[in-house]
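Worked example 3 (structure in, sequence out).
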């Protein structure tokens, strides 16, 4: 550990140079160790007109950098423990492709499909801490898949005011006074009579990132110097949150999408706030517009 000059300033009319330690030398970090396993099968049939492959892969990375929290150093020392190789993670999955190609005279074509299904696990961390069993269930990353969406589980929709008034579970924390026909009924999984964070469970895959499954379709055709290629791609096992357009009418200064308004619970008489509501094809929850008037 060395001392360096830093933070010069005037004190009592004198130019004073401060000192700061450079910290404890980092001698505890080494290269991350990677264990990779891949097994696959390649095939060609019908004079190689039908070809393809499929592979399973497993990638374990040991020695990700982290810090120990249980070896304490007084904050007055101005230093902290150096990083160490403490954690690990896993990437695993399967991918494959298949292609049919053939020709008839001057016309050649091929049709192929491919896919990749991959998951990520945080695997092991340094001495994880939890306040209680619920905290462990909710926040633990030990040997768990990442990018899991948590939320409430649905038990259908309210279809009338009477159903809301007689519902035994407090969904909105206000005695269900803000609910309307068409709103979602949530399951009270811990049977405490109220919907809160203790009722949250894994309900979806990754949100806002690459889906777990990605696939594509490829078509090529050629004839006497002319060729055409078509590539289609898609994803699955991901989570998409219909957020702004469903929650905020006239979002971003535009109209709400017609498919939302046409398939939505709404007043049978829009001029009468106490009129009955009805749904179309099951119906989306009602969108509420708050209009503030200044008197």
């Amino acid at each position: 550990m060395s001392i360096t000059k830093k933070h010069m300033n005037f004190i009592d009319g004198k130019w004073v140079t401060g000192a700061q330690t450079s910290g404890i030398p980092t001698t505890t970090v080494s290269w991350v160790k990677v264990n990779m396993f891949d097994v696959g099968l390649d095939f060609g049939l019908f004079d190689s007109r039908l070809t393809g492959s499929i592979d399973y892969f497993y990638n374990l990375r040991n020695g990700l950098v982290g810090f120990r929290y249980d070896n304490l150093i007084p904050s007055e020392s101005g230093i902290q423990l150096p990083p160490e190789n403490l954690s690990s993670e896993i990437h695993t999955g399967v991918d494959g492709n298949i292609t049919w190609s053939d020709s008839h005279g001057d016309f050649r074509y091929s049709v192929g499909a491919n896919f990749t299904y991959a998951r990520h696990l945080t695997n092991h961390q340094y001495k994880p801490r939890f306040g209680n069993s619920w905290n462990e269930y909710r926040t633990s990353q030990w040997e768990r898949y990442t990018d899991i969406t948590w939320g409430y589980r649905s038990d259908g929709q309210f279809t009338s005011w009477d159903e809301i008034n007689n519902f035994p579970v407090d969904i909105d924390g206000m005695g269900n006074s803000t609910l309307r026909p068409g709103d979602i009924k949530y399951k009270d999984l811990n049977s405490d009579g109220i919907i809160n964070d203790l009722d949250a469970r894994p309900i979806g895959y990754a949100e806002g990132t690459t889906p777990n499954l990605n696939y594509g379709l490829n078509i090529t055709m050629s004839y006497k110097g002319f060729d055409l290629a078509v590539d289609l791609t898609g994803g699955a096992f991901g989570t998409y949150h219909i957020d702004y357009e469903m929650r905020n009418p006239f979002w971003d200064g535009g109209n709400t999408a017609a498919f939302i308004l046409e398939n939505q619970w709404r007043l049978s008489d829009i001029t009468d706030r106490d009129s009955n509501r009805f749904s179309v094809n099951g119906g989306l929850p009602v969108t509420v517009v708050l209009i503030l008037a200044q008197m």
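Notes: Helices lie at 133-139, 161-165, 244-247, 258-262. Residues 33-241 form one domain.
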